[in-house]
Amino acid sequence: MLIGCPKEIKNQEYRVGMMPAAVVEAVAYGHSVIIEKSAGAGAGFEDTAYLEAGAEIVDTAAEIFARADMVVKVKEPQPVERKQLREGQILFTYLHLAPDAPQTNDLLASGVTAIAYETVTDRNGTLPLLAPMSEVAGKLAPQVGSWTLQKANGGRGVLLGGVPGVAPGRVVVIGGGVVGTHAARVAAGMGADVTVLDMSLPRMRYLDDAFSGLFKSRYASKDNTAALIADADIVVGAVLIPGAAAPTLISRAQLSTMKPGSVLVDVAIDQGGCFETSKATTHDDPIYEVDGIMHYCVANMPGAVARTSTIALGNATMPFMMALANKGWKQACADDIHLLNGLNTHHGKITYAAVGKALGMDFIDAEAALKM
Hints:
The chain is built from 15 helices and 15 strands. By secondary structure, it is an alpha/beta fold. α1 (20-28) packs parallel to α2 (47-53).
C-alpha cells in the first residue's frame, strides 16, 4: 500500500500524522510512504529523518492526495484538502464530524473511506486513539486557564496556588474521564482548590481512592454544578460522548452568576463545545470575553506541544495504521470490531450512528459498509 502524510495546514497545527518510526514500520512490511516536504518540522522531525527511514519526500500535498491509497493526518481535512479526497481512498485522522456538517457533506461527496481516531475503541471500552491527546489537553487546561486568569489577559488576577495568607484559586472540572482526571491532577499540583464533577459514582470512588484526596469530587447535578461554578476561578469543560456533539453544561444565563474575570476552558470544543457561549478559537487568538467571563476554546490544544503530542499519538495510531495497510480496510475492520467502530463514512454514506443522529442525516451500520 502507498501511505501518504501531508503537512497539517490548520492554524498553528504543528503535529504530524506519521513519525519516522512509523515509516520504518511501514517499509519493513513492504509498504511505500510519501511525506510532504517539511511535514514533520514543527514537531522536530526533519525531512532527512524520513528519508533515512525509507520515505519519499514530495513537494506538495496535492501529490499526496493524488497518489496515496491511505492518507494519514492529525486534524480533520480542511476544505481545500477535502476537495482532493477520492472514492477508494482511506482517510485515517481525527474527524469530529458530529458538529461539522460541511466537513461531513464533503467527505460523503468524495466517497472516501474515513476512519476517525476519536471513535476507535478497545476491549476496555475506552478510546485508545483519543486518550493520548485527551491526556495532553487535560494537562494543558490548568496551564492555559491560569494564563487566561491573569489580569493582563482579562482574568480576575488570581494566582491558582495562592501564597501564604492568601487562599488558592478554585478550579471546577466538569467530567472525571481522561481529560478531567489529568486537568484535576495538574491543577491540584499547582496548588489550586480543585473539585471534579461527574455523574458516575464508580468513577468518583475510583478518583477518591486513586488520588487520596488530592482533589474533591461531587455529583454533577444541576444544583451542584450551579453552586460550584458560581464560586470558581476556572471551570474546565471535560465531557465526552464518543462521536457525538458535546452536551451544553453551562448556559449563557449562568455566566451572570460567575465571578467577573473567571475563566471557562472548553476542552470539548472539537465536539461543538460544552458551554453555550463557546466558539472555536486558535492559538493565534485563543481567548475572548462574553458577559465578563473569559473563554479559552482552542480547537487543537495539543498542537501547542507538538513534539510530545506527535510521539504520543503516533505510538497509539501505529498498530491500527499497520493493520489497515497490511490487510486493507475491509479485512482489518472485519477482524477488529474496535477498528470498525472508527469507520465514520464510506462510499457516500455515514457509518457512525452518533454522527448521523447529531446532524439529522441518514446513516447505515458500519457492518453494512463491509458488504458494499
